[in-house]
Protein backbone atom coordinates (compact mmCIF):
# COMPACT_ATOMS: atom_id res chain seq x y z
CA UNK A 1 0.00 0.00 0.00
CA UNK A 2 3.08 2.22 0.07
CA UNK A 3 2.61 3.18 -3.62
CA UNK A 4 -0.86 4.58 -3.15
CA UNK A 5 -0.86 8.27 -4.16
CA UNK A 6 -3.02 11.03 -2.87
CA UNK A 7 -5.01 13.13 -5.31
CA UNK A 8 -2.66 16.06 -4.74
CA UNK A 9 0.42 13.87 -5.30
CA UNK A 10 -0.99 12.39 -8.48
CA UNK A 11 -2.00 15.80 -9.78
CA UNK A 12 1.47 17.20 -9.01
CA UNK A 13 3.18 14.32 -10.79
CA UNK A 14 0.93 14.75 -13.80
CA UNK A 15 1.75 18.48 -13.84
CA UNK A 16 5.48 17.75 -13.79
CA UNK A 17 5.18 15.21 -16.61
CA UNK A 18 3.09 17.51 -18.78
CA UNK A 19 5.28 20.58 -18.25
CA UNK A 20 8.50 18.66 -18.83
CA UNK A 21 7.21 16.82 -21.90
CA UNK A 22 5.56 19.88 -23.47
CA UNK A 23 7.49 22.97 -22.29
CA UNK A 24 6.08 24.90 -25.27
CA UNK A 25 3.54 23.87 -27.88
CA UNK A 26 1.62 25.13 -30.91
CA UNK A 27 -2.00 23.99 -31.16
CA UNK A 28 -4.65 24.60 -33.80
CA UNK A 29 -8.34 24.31 -33.08
CA UNK A 30 -11.80 25.90 -33.04
CA UNK A 31 -12.69 28.39 -30.29
CA UNK A 32 -15.53 27.39 -27.95
CA UNK A 33 -16.68 28.17 -24.41
CA UNK A 34 -15.33 31.72 -24.81
CA UNK A 35 -15.47 33.88 -21.64
CA UNK A 36 -14.16 37.40 -20.94
CA UNK A 37 -14.46 38.33 -17.21
CA UNK A 38 -13.77 41.85 -15.95
CA UNK A 39 -10.21 40.87 -14.99
CA UNK A 40 -9.25 41.13 -18.67
CA UNK A 41 -8.23 37.45 -18.85
CA UNK A 42 -9.70 35.38 -21.66
CA UNK A 43 -10.90 31.82 -21.04
CA UNK A 44 -11.82 29.52 -23.89
CA UNK A 45 -11.41 25.99 -25.18
CA UNK A 46 -9.96 24.67 -28.42
CA UNK A 47 -11.83 21.73 -29.86
CA UNK A 48 -11.29 19.34 -32.73
CA UNK A 49 -13.95 16.70 -33.10
CA UNK A 50 -14.57 15.28 -29.63
CA UNK A 51 -11.18 16.48 -28.25
CA UNK A 52 -11.10 19.57 -26.05
CA UNK A 53 -8.25 21.69 -24.62
CA UNK A 54 -8.88 24.41 -22.04
CA UNK A 55 -6.95 27.67 -22.58
CA UNK A 56 -6.23 30.71 -20.42
CA UNK A 57 -4.95 33.93 -22.00
CA UNK A 58 -3.93 36.20 -19.17
CA UNK A 59 -4.27 39.94 -19.73
CA UNK A 60 -0.56 40.49 -19.15
CA UNK A 61 0.29 38.13 -22.04
CA UNK A 62 -2.00 39.71 -24.62
CA UNK A 63 0.63 42.18 -25.98
CA UNK A 64 -1.82 44.95 -26.70
CA UNK A 65 0.88 47.58 -27.34
CA UNK A 66 3.23 45.69 -29.68
CA UNK A 67 3.94 47.31 -33.08
CA UNK A 68 4.49 43.88 -34.64
CA UNK A 69 3.11 40.43 -34.14
CA UNK A 70 5.81 38.23 -32.51
CA UNK A 71 4.14 35.14 -34.00
CA UNK A 72 4.52 36.10 -37.67
CA UNK A 73 6.81 39.11 -37.64
CA UNK A 74 4.05 41.22 -39.24
CA UNK A 75 4.63 44.95 -38.81
CA UNK A 76 1.60 47.17 -38.28
CA UNK A 77 2.50 50.53 -39.80
CA UNK A 78 -0.74 52.10 -38.56
CA UNK A 79 0.27 51.81 -34.92
CA UNK A 80 -0.31 49.24 -32.16
CA UNK A 81 -2.84 46.63 -33.18
CA UNK A 82 -5.45 45.29 -30.71
CA UNK A 83 -4.74 41.82 -29.49
CA UNK A 84 -6.68 38.92 -31.02
CA UNK A 85 -8.04 38.39 -27.51
CA UNK A 86 -10.42 41.32 -28.15
CA UNK A 87 -11.83 39.86 -31.37
CA UNK A 88 -12.06 36.12 -30.55
CA UNK A 89 -15.36 34.51 -31.35
CA UNK A 90 -16.81 31.07 -30.78
CA UNK A 91 -16.36 28.97 -33.88
CA UNK A 92 -13.24 30.85 -35.00
CA UNK A 93 -10.26 28.66 -36.00
CA UNK A 94 -6.96 29.86 -34.53
CA UNK A 95 -3.39 28.76 -33.78
CA UNK A 96 -2.17 29.17 -30.20
CA UNK A 97 1.31 28.97 -28.72
CA UNK A 98 2.06 28.57 -25.03
CA UNK A 99 2.91 26.31 -22.11
CA UNK A 100 0.90 23.26 -21.05
CA UNK A 101 0.12 22.84 -17.38
CA UNK A 102 -2.26 21.00 -15.02
CA UNK A 103 -4.86 23.03 -13.10
CA UNK A 104 -5.12 21.28 -9.73
CA UNK A 105 -8.56 22.50 -8.55
CA UNK A 106 -10.23 20.87 -11.54
CA UNK A 107 -7.66 18.18 -12.20
CA UNK A 108 -7.52 19.18 -15.87
CA UNK A 109 -4.63 20.08 -18.15
CA UNK A 110 -4.75 23.43 -19.94
CA UNK A 111 -2.69 25.79 -22.12
CA UNK A 112 -1.35 29.10 -20.81
CA UNK A 113 -1.50 31.11 -24.03
CA UNK A 114 1.34 33.46 -25.03
CA UNK A 115 0.49 34.05 -28.69
CA UNK A 116 -2.53 33.53 -30.89
CA UNK A 117 -3.16 34.02 -34.58
CA UNK A 118 -5.88 33.27 -37.05
CA UNK A 119 -5.48 29.99 -38.91
CA UNK A 120 -5.35 31.82 -42.23
CA UNK A 121 -2.05 33.37 -41.23
CA UNK A 122 -0.90 29.99 -40.02
CA UNK A 123 -1.40 28.69 -43.55
CA UNK A 124 0.77 31.55 -44.86
CA UNK A 125 3.53 30.46 -42.53
CA UNK A 126 3.26 26.79 -43.49
CA UNK A 127 3.33 27.66 -47.20
CA UNK A 128 6.39 29.86 -46.61
CA UNK A 129 8.26 27.08 -44.82
CA UNK A 130 7.34 24.49 -47.45
CA UNK A 131 8.61 26.65 -50.33
CA UNK A 132 11.72 27.56 -48.36
CA UNK A 133 12.58 23.87 -47.83
CA UNK A 134 11.94 23.05 -51.50
CA UNK A 135 14.14 25.85 -52.87
CA UNK A 136 16.89 25.14 -50.35
CA UNK A 137 17.00 21.52 -51.53
CA UNK A 138 17.44 22.79 -55.12
CA UNK A 139 20.44 24.96 -54.15
CA UNK A 140 18.70 28.33 -54.50
CA UNK A 141 20.18 29.58 -51.22
CA UNK A 142 23.75 28.26 -51.66
CA UNK A 143 26.31 30.89 -50.73
CA UNK A 144 28.74 29.57 -53.35
CA UNK A 145 26.50 30.79 -56.21
CA UNK A 146 26.01 34.28 -54.83
CA UNK A 147 27.86 37.14 -56.51
CA UNK A 148 29.34 40.26 -54.93
CA UNK A 149 27.34 43.46 -55.20
CA UNK A 150 29.28 46.16 -57.14
CA UNK A 151 30.84 48.85 -54.99
CA UNK A 152 29.57 52.37 -55.81
CA UNK A 153 27.75 51.34 -59.02
CA UNK A 154 27.19 53.99 -61.70
CA UNK A 155 23.99 52.40 -63.12
CA UNK A 156 21.25 50.80 -60.99
CA UNK A 157 18.02 49.08 -62.06
CA UNK A 158 15.44 49.81 -59.34
CA UNK A 159 12.45 47.44 -59.37
CA UNK A 160 9.66 48.73 -57.14
CA UNK A 161 6.43 50.68 -57.02
CA UNK A 162 7.05 54.13 -58.56
CA UNK A 163 5.45 55.90 -55.59
CA UNK A 164 5.75 55.43 -51.86
CA UNK A 165 8.24 55.87 -49.05
CA UNK A 166 10.55 53.06 -50.22
CA UNK A 167 11.43 54.60 -53.59
CA UNK A 168 11.65 58.11 -52.10
CA UNK A 169 14.05 57.01 -49.37
CA UNK A 170 16.20 55.09 -51.85
CA UNK A 171 16.50 58.05 -54.25
CA UNK A 172 17.18 60.48 -51.39
CA UNK A 173 20.06 58.41 -50.04
CA UNK A 174 21.38 57.81 -53.57
CA UNK A 175 21.40 61.57 -54.17
CA UNK A 176 23.42 62.08 -50.99
CA UNK A 177 25.88 59.27 -51.61
CA UNK A 178 25.70 58.14 -55.24
CA UNK A 179 27.79 60.98 -56.74
CA UNK A 180 25.82 61.18 -59.97
CA UNK A 181 24.90 57.49 -60.30
CA UNK A 182 22.13 56.72 -62.79
CA UNK A 183 18.96 55.04 -61.49
CA UNK A 184 16.48 53.51 -63.95
CA UNK A 185 13.14 52.64 -62.31
CA UNK A 186 11.23 49.59 -63.57
CA UNK A 187 7.75 50.28 -62.12
CA UNK A 188 5.75 47.33 -60.86
CA UNK A 189 3.11 46.64 -58.21
CA UNK A 190 4.65 45.10 -55.11
CA UNK A 191 1.56 43.54 -53.53
CA UNK A 192 -1.55 41.81 -54.74
CA UNK A 193 -2.20 38.89 -57.07
CA UNK A 194 -0.72 40.59 -60.15
CA UNK A 195 2.49 41.64 -58.36
CA UNK A 196 4.56 38.42 -58.82
CA UNK A 197 4.30 38.23 -62.66
CA UNK A 198 4.89 41.98 -62.95
CA UNK A 199 7.98 41.79 -60.72
CA UNK A 200 9.28 38.88 -62.81
CA UNK A 201 8.70 40.84 -66.04
CA UNK A 202 10.48 43.92 -64.68
CA UNK A 203 13.52 41.91 -63.58
CA UNK A 204 13.69 40.11 -66.93
CA UNK A 205 13.48 43.45 -68.76
CA UNK A 206 16.35 44.87 -66.71
CA UNK A 207 18.44 41.83 -67.61
CA UNK A 208 17.46 42.06 -71.28
CA UNK A 209 18.49 45.72 -71.54
CA UNK A 210 21.85 45.03 -69.89
CA UNK A 211 22.22 48.69 -68.93
CA UNK A 212 22.58 48.33 -65.18
CA UNK A 213 25.39 46.94 -63.05
CA UNK A 214 23.02 45.68 -60.34
CA UNK A 215 19.28 45.09 -59.89
CA UNK A 216 17.67 46.35 -56.66
CA UNK A 217 14.31 44.94 -55.54
CA UNK A 218 12.66 46.90 -52.70
CA UNK A 219 9.33 47.25 -50.89
CA UNK A 220 8.35 49.01 -47.66
CA UNK A 221 6.96 47.31 -44.59
CA UNK A 222 3.54 45.72 -44.29
CA UNK A 223 1.64 42.67 -43.19
CA UNK A 224 2.58 39.17 -44.25
CA UNK A 225 -0.15 39.36 -46.89
CA UNK A 226 1.27 42.65 -48.19
CA UNK A 227 4.75 41.15 -48.53
CA UNK A 228 3.58 37.80 -49.89
CA UNK A 229 4.50 38.64 -53.51
CA UNK A 230 8.15 38.31 -52.51
CA UNK A 231 7.47 34.79 -51.22
CA UNK A 232 6.17 33.70 -54.63
CA UNK A 233 8.09 30.89 -56.33
CA UNK A 234 8.01 32.72 -59.68
CA UNK A 235 9.80 35.71 -58.17
CA UNK A 236 12.34 33.44 -56.48
CA UNK A 237 13.15 31.70 -59.77
CA UNK A 238 13.49 35.04 -61.60
CA UNK A 239 15.95 36.29 -58.97
CA UNK A 240 17.86 33.01 -59.22
CA UNK A 241 18.07 33.26 -63.04
CA UNK A 242 19.09 36.94 -63.13
CA UNK A 243 22.37 37.68 -64.88
CA UNK A 244 22.59 40.92 -62.92
CA UNK A 245 23.53 40.69 -59.24
CA UNK A 246 20.35 41.18 -57.19
CA UNK A 247 20.11 43.20 -53.96
CA UNK A 248 16.81 43.04 -52.05
CA UNK A 249 15.34 45.21 -49.31
CA UNK A 250 11.84 43.97 -48.43
CA UNK A 251 9.90 45.17 -45.39
CA UNK A 252 11.51 45.96 -42.06
CA UNK A 253 14.42 44.40 -40.21
CA UNK A 254 12.32 41.57 -38.78
CA UNK A 255 10.85 40.63 -42.20
CA UNK A 256 12.48 37.88 -44.22
CA UNK A 257 11.17 36.86 -47.64
CA UNK A 258 12.02 34.03 -49.99
CA UNK A 259 13.40 36.64 -52.41
CA UNK A 260 15.82 37.75 -49.67
CA UNK A 261 17.14 34.22 -49.28
CA UNK A 262 17.66 33.78 -53.04
CA UNK A 263 19.17 37.24 -53.70
CA UNK A 264 22.92 37.75 -53.87
CA UNK A 265 22.58 40.06 -50.87
CA UNK A 266 19.63 41.11 -48.70
CA UNK A 267 19.39 44.43 -46.89
CA UNK A 268 17.34 45.02 -43.75
CA UNK A 269 15.22 47.81 -45.27
CA UNK A 270 14.85 49.68 -48.59
CA UNK A 271 16.95 52.53 -47.18
CA UNK A 272 19.63 50.07 -46.18
CA UNK A 273 19.99 48.90 -49.81
CA UNK A 274 21.11 52.39 -50.86
CA UNK A 275 23.50 52.54 -47.90
CA UNK A 276 25.05 49.23 -48.95
CA UNK A 277 25.53 50.39 -52.55
CA UNK A 278 27.20 53.73 -51.85
CA UNK A 279 29.42 54.63 -48.88
CA UNK A 280 29.28 57.99 -47.16
CA UNK A 281 31.08 60.93 -48.76
CA UNK A 282 33.82 60.90 -46.15
CA UNK A 283 34.63 57.35 -47.28
CA UNK A 284 35.15 58.64 -50.82
CA UNK A 285 37.42 61.37 -49.44
CA UNK A 286 39.43 58.75 -47.57
CA UNK A 287 39.75 56.71 -50.76
CA UNK A 288 41.04 59.76 -52.64
CA UNK A 289 43.54 60.46 -49.86
CA UNK A 290 44.72 56.84 -49.93
CA UNK A 291 45.09 56.95 -53.72
CA UNK A 292 47.00 60.24 -53.54
CA UNK A 293 49.33 58.82 -50.90
CA UNK A 294 49.94 55.69 -52.97
CA UNK A 295 50.61 57.80 -56.09
CA UNK A 296 53.05 60.05 -54.26
CA UNK A 297 54.85 57.05 -52.81
CA UNK A 298 55.11 55.45 -56.25
CA UNK A 299 56.39 58.71 -57.77
CA UNK A 300 58.93 59.06 -54.95
CA UNK A 301 60.15 55.51 -55.57
CA UNK A 302 60.50 56.14 -59.31
CA UNK A 303 62.28 59.43 -58.65
CA UNK A 304 64.59 57.70 -56.19
CA UNK A 305 65.42 55.06 -58.81
CA UNK A 306 66.13 57.81 -61.34
CA UNK A 307 68.36 59.78 -58.97
CA UNK A 308 70.35 56.68 -58.07
CA UNK A 309 70.76 55.89 -61.77
CA UNK A 310 71.95 59.45 -62.40
CA UNK A 311 74.46 59.15 -59.56
CA UNK A 312 75.78 55.96 -61.11
CA UNK A 313 76.07 57.58 -64.52
CA UNK A 314 77.85 60.57 -62.98
CA UNK A 315 80.39 58.30 -61.34
CA UNK A 316 80.87 56.43 -64.62
CA UNK A 317 81.31 59.69 -66.55
CA UNK A 318 83.82 60.88 -63.98
CA UNK A 319 85.86 57.72 -64.44
CA UNK A 320 85.64 57.94 -68.25
CA UNK A 321 86.41 61.69 -68.49
CA UNK A 322 89.53 62.47 -70.69
CA UNK A 323 90.61 65.08 -68.15
CA UNK A 324 90.48 62.48 -65.39
CA UNK A 325 92.40 59.98 -67.53
CA UNK A 326 95.02 62.63 -68.38
CA UNK A 327 95.29 63.63 -64.73
CA UNK A 328 95.89 60.02 -63.77
CA UNK A 329 98.58 59.68 -66.48
CA UNK A 330 100.15 62.96 -65.33
CA UNK A 331 100.20 61.68 -61.76
CA UNK A 332 101.82 58.44 -62.90
CA UNK A 333 104.42 60.40 -64.94
CA UNK A 334 105.14 62.70 -62.00
CA UNK A 335 105.55 59.64 -59.80
CA UNK A 336 107.98 58.14 -62.29
CA UNK A 337 109.94 61.40 -62.49
CA UNK A 338 109.97 61.54 -58.70
CA UNK A 339 111.46 58.06 -58.56
CA UNK A 340 113.92 58.77 -61.41
CA UNK A 341 115.35 62.01 -59.93
CA UNK A 342 116.96 60.41 -56.83
CA UNK A 343 118.34 57.64 -59.01
CA UNK A 344 119.95 60.15 -61.37
CA UNK A 345 121.32 62.08 -58.42
CA UNK A 346 122.86 58.92 -57.00
CA UNK A 347 124.31 58.11 -60.41
CA UNK A 348 125.80 61.59 -60.73
CA UNK A 349 127.28 61.34 -57.26
CA UNK A 350 128.79 57.98 -58.14
CA UNK A 351 130.16 59.34 -61.43
CA UNK A 352 131.50 62.40 -59.61
CA UNK A 353 133.22 60.16 -57.10
CA UNK A 354 134.63 58.04 -59.90
CA UNK A 355 135.81 61.18 -61.66
CA UNK A 356 137.48 62.48 -58.54
CA UNK A 357 139.15 59.15 -58.04
CA UNK A 358 140.25 59.11 -61.67
CA UNK A 359 141.64 62.64 -61.44
CA UNK A 360 143.57 61.72 -58.34
CA UNK A 361 144.97 58.64 -60.06
CA UNK A 362 145.77 60.66 -63.14
CA UNK A 363 147.61 63.24 -61.10
CA UNK A 364 149.57 60.51 -59.49
CA UNK A 365 150.44 58.75 -62.73
CA UNK A 366 150.14 61.17 -65.64
CA UNK A 367 150.65 64.60 -64.32
CA UNK A 368 149.16 67.66 -66.00
CA UNK A 369 149.38 66.24 -69.49
CA UNK A 370 147.39 63.19 -68.56
CA UNK A 371 144.88 65.39 -66.82
CA UNK A 372 144.42 67.49 -69.90
CA UNK A 373 143.82 64.37 -71.97
CA UNK A 374 141.21 63.18 -69.50
CA UNK A 375 139.53 66.59 -69.48
CA UNK A 376 139.23 66.53 -73.28
CA UNK A 377 137.81 63.01 -73.14
CA UNK A 378 135.37 64.15 -70.50
CA UNK A 379 134.35 67.15 -72.57
CA UNK A 380 133.60 64.76 -75.42
CA UNK A 381 131.64 62.44 -73.11
CA UNK A 382 129.38 65.13 -71.59
CA UNK A 383 127.61 66.04 -74.87
CA UNK A 384 127.06 62.39 -75.60
CA UNK A 385 125.58 61.80 -72.15
CA UNK A 386 123.44 64.92 -72.50
CA UNK A 387 122.22 63.79 -75.92
CA UNK A 388 121.46 60.30 -74.65
CA UNK A 389 119.51 61.70 -71.66
CA UNK A 390 117.54 64.06 -73.84
CA UNK A 391 116.78 61.20 -76.25
CA UNK A 392 115.43 59.09 -73.37
CA UNK A 393 113.26 61.98 -72.18
CA UNK A 394 112.02 62.65 -75.73
CA UNK A 395 111.05 58.99 -76.13
CA UNK A 396 109.18 59.09 -72.80
CA UNK A 397 107.34 62.24 -73.89
CA UNK A 398 106.38 60.71 -77.21
CA UNK A 399 105.10 57.58 -75.42
CA UNK A 400 102.97 59.80 -73.17
CA UNK A 401 101.62 61.68 -76.20
CA UNK A 402 100.74 58.43 -77.97
CA UNK A 403 99.03 57.15 -74.80
CA UNK A 404 97.01 60.33 -74.55
CA UNK A 405 96.08 60.12 -78.25
CA UNK A 406 94.80 56.57 -77.71
CA UNK A 407 92.89 57.42 -74.52
CA UNK A 408 91.11 60.53 -75.82
CA UNK A 409 89.01 58.74 -78.56
CA UNK A 410 88.12 55.92 -76.16
CA UNK A 411 87.10 58.40 -73.48
CA UNK A 412 85.04 60.42 -75.98
CA UNK A 413 83.23 57.24 -77.13
CA UNK A 414 82.42 56.23 -73.56
CA UNK A 415 81.27 59.78 -72.83
CA UNK A 416 78.92 59.75 -75.85
CA UNK A 417 77.39 56.46 -74.73
CA UNK A 418 76.90 57.79 -71.21
CA UNK A 419 75.26 60.95 -72.57
CA UNK A 420 72.85 58.86 -74.70
CA UNK A 421 71.93 56.76 -71.64
CA UNK A 422 71.38 59.93 -69.64
CA UNK A 423 69.14 61.38 -72.38
CA UNK A 424 67.02 58.19 -72.50
CA UNK A 425 66.65 58.25 -68.73
CA UNK A 426 65.66 61.92 -68.84
CA UNK A 427 62.99 61.12 -71.47
CA UNK A 428 61.61 58.31 -69.29
CA UNK A 429 61.47 60.62 -66.28
CA UNK A 430 59.73 63.28 -68.35
CA UNK A 431 57.15 60.69 -69.45
CA UNK A 432 56.15 60.23 -65.81
CA UNK A 433 55.20 63.90 -65.48
CA UNK A 434 51.36 64.19 -65.57
CA UNK A 435 51.70 67.72 -66.98
CA UNK A 436 53.83 66.65 -69.95
CA UNK A 437 50.86 66.04 -72.32
CA UNK A 438 49.57 69.52 -71.47
CA UNK A 439 52.86 71.05 -72.72
CA UNK A 440 52.26 69.32 -76.06
CA UNK A 441 48.85 70.94 -76.49
CA UNK A 442 46.64 68.27 -74.99
CA UNK A 443 43.95 68.85 -72.35
CA UNK A 444 42.63 66.78 -69.43
CA UNK A 445 38.82 66.63 -68.99
CA UNK A 446 37.38 66.51 -65.46
CA UNK A 447 33.72 65.82 -64.62
CA UNK A 448 31.71 67.93 -62.22
CA UNK A 449 32.87 65.68 -59.37
CA UNK A 450 36.52 66.32 -60.24
CA UNK A 451 37.13 62.80 -61.59
CA UNK A 452 39.13 62.38 -64.79
CA UNK A 453 36.83 61.66 -67.75
CA UNK A 454 38.12 58.51 -69.48
CA UNK A 455 35.03 57.48 -71.47
CA UNK A 456 31.86 58.94 -72.98
CA UNK A 457 30.03 56.92 -70.33
CA UNK A 458 31.55 59.16 -67.62
CA UNK A 459 29.61 62.29 -68.70
CA UNK A 460 26.07 63.21 -69.64
CA UNK A 461 24.60 65.83 -71.94
CA UNK A 462 24.34 69.29 -70.27
CA UNK A 463 26.85 68.25 -67.63
CA UNK A 464 29.42 70.89 -66.65
CA UNK A 465 33.04 69.79 -67.16
CA UNK A 466 36.47 71.40 -66.71
CA UNK A 467 39.27 71.31 -69.32
CA UNK A 468 42.74 71.47 -67.77
CA UNK A 469 45.33 72.98 -70.17
CA UNK A 470 48.97 74.02 -69.79
CA UNK A 471 48.37 77.42 -68.21
CA UNK A 472 44.98 77.03 -66.50
CA UNK A 473 41.52 75.50 -66.85
CA UNK A 474 38.48 76.09 -69.07
CA UNK A 475 34.85 75.60 -67.97
CA UNK A 476 32.67 73.86 -70.57
CA UNK A 477 29.29 72.14 -70.94
CA UNK A 478 28.67 68.84 -72.73
CA UNK A 479 26.34 69.43 -75.71
CA UNK A 480 26.53 65.94 -77.12
CA UNK A 481 28.11 62.52 -76.64
CA UNK A 482 29.15 60.35 -79.60
CA UNK A 483 30.53 56.89 -78.77
CA UNK A 484 33.33 55.61 -80.99
CA UNK A 485 32.03 53.20 -83.67
CA UNK A 486 32.68 49.54 -83.02
CA UNK A 487 35.23 48.00 -85.43
CA UNK A 488 33.60 45.97 -88.20
CA UNK A 489 34.42 42.27 -87.90
CA UNK A 490 36.62 41.14 -90.76
Automatic annotation (TrEMBL):
Domain Exonuclease VII large subunit C-terminal per the UniProt entry, residue ranges: 141-476
Reactions mediated catalytically:
Exonucleolytic cleavage in either 5'- to 3'- or 3'- to 5'-direction to yield nucleoside 5'-phosphates
Q: Which GO terms describe its biological process?
A: DNA catabolic process
Q: Where in the cell is it found?
A: Cytoplasm
List the GO terms this entry assigns under cellular component, sorted alphabetically. cytoplasm; exodeoxyribonuclease VII complex
Top enzyme class: hydrolase
Alphabetical keyword list: Cytoplasm, Exonuclease, Hydrolase, Nuclease
E.C. number: 3.1.11.6
Extract the GO molecular function terms from the UniProt entry.
Answer: exodeoxyribonuclease VII activity; nucleic acid binding
User: Where is each OB-fold nucleic acid binding domain found?
Assistant: 5-114
* Matching InterPro entries: Exonuc_VII_L, Exonuc_VII_lsu_C, OB-fold_nuc-bd_dom
Superkingdom in the source lineage: Bacteria
Q: Which PANTHER family match?
A: EXODEOXYRIBONUCLEASE 7 LARGE SUBUNIT
Job of this protein: Bidirectionally degrades single-stranded DNA into large acid-insoluble oligonucleotides, which are then degraded further into small acid-soluble oligonucleotides.
HAMAP family xrefs: Exonuc_7_L (MF_00378)
Q: Which family does the record claim for this protein?
A: Belongs to the XseA family.
Subunit comment = Heterooligomer composed of large and small subunits.
- Entry protein name: Exodeoxyribonuclease 7 large subunit
Q: Which gene encodes it?
A: xseA
Amino acid sequence: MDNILSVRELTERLRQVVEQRFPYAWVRGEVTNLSRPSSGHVYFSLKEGDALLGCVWFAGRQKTHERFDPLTGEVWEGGPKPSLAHSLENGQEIVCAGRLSVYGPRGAYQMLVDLAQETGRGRWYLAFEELKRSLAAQGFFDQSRKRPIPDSPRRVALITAPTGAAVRDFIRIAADRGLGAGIRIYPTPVQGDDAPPRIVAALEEANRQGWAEVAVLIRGGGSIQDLWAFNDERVARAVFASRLPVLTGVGHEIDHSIADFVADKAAATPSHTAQLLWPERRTYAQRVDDAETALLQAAARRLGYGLRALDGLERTLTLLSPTARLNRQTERLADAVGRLTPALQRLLREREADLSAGLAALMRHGGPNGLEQRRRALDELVPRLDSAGRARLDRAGREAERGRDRLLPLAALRLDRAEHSLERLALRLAGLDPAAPLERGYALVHGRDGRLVRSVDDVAVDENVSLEVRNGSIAARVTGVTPAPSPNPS
